């Protein structure tokens, strides 16, 4: 396919640095999260509250979005700087037309040593049953599916949609069937809203081969009315699980892994805990984020990005692009979660714009 040929050409146009780029805190650039759209078919109350993201909300026009070729070019340069994992996110990434073509282009990328990069995707699962096989065929490695409750009414309330839990569960099963596994299931826990679903969710996914991950409700963006009182900490979530199950800790799989890992002592599988609020992991944060229109962000809580689209559309060479991204990363000092509450960021970017 022609797109792959273009990627091959890219690979040979400049000499990529041989060691990974390091930031001010000696963190290597290893992960690239690419938000492919700011649109979504859900209005999760903690992410895109309908009062803000209503029918008159101005989403980005298509012409502002990076094209698949432009995204792949940034990704290839980032791989040259050390990136080994690429995650597609959004908004809802499966709403981006022909996303399979982008996956195919990204899956064709190779490191300077000739190794492929890990290409994954986070989705709300509504379109997953239909698309799982095509995503796998395009070269996607795994998926993460967000699901905050098994109770239909609560799920509808939290996602502010008419989609049923069954639709998402069917998406998860379809993904596992085609080999996009292990499927990770992300549950954002909001105290007093869905914490009563912790045990039912654990019970449902135990023994399924899928990895349920509990996420602390975060103060991303400026629109979700975040309040520390609604944060159920990882420790509290674990205590809830231990009311019913014997849980044992697992070592981290690799540097920069965001979830702490636990297993059921009876062998029924693994769960993850993402404690960005109570136990920040900035010291190991190796992620850069690319927005739909080509702004590079160095932190989920940054209030400013670096415009790569202007550079690309202005005709910059791969060498120049590499120097720019490497320079941006070298100047990175972000560690917001470690200083949360001590310093106030005036206006943060929205999660639906930059992805989780
Ligand atoms: N639409 C896709 C989805 O929901 O999976 C991908 C984008 S979504 C922004 C990525 C992840 O961020 C989801 O797992 C979502 O639950 C999580 N998320 C969104 N807002 C959050 C918040 N305030 N705190 C914690 N996680 C959040
Ligand atoms: Fe959409 Fe995902 Fe945000 Fe929910 S969390 S509104 S599904 S982008
Ligand atoms: Fe990384 Fe920023 Fe999150 Fe810290 S707060 S882990 S630097 S994204």
Main traits of this protein?
356 residues, alpha/beta, TIM Barrel, 12-stranded mixed sheet, 16% strand, disordered N terminus, binds S-adenosylmethionine, binds iron/sulfur cluster
Can you characterise this structure?
The protein is of the alpha/beta class. The chain has a single domain, classed as Alpha-Beta Barrel (TIM Barrel). Helices cover 30% and strands 16% of the residues. It has 12 helices and 12 strands. It has helices spanning 2-11, 68-80, 99-107, 128-138, 152-159, 165-178, 198-205, 234-242, 309-313, 318-330, 336-339, 351-354; strands at residues 31-35, 85-89, 118-123, 142-146, 184-189, 211-216, 247-250, 260-264, 270-274, 287-290, 295-297, 306-307. It has a 12-stranded mixed sheet. The longest helix has 14 residues, at 165-178. It is globular. It starts with a helix and ends with a helix. The structure holds S-adenosylmethionine and iron/sulfur cluster (2 copies).
Distance between the termini: 31 Å
Strand order of the largest sheet: 7-8-9-6-5-4-3-2-1-10-11-12
Number of helices: 12
**Would you report the number of β strands?**
12
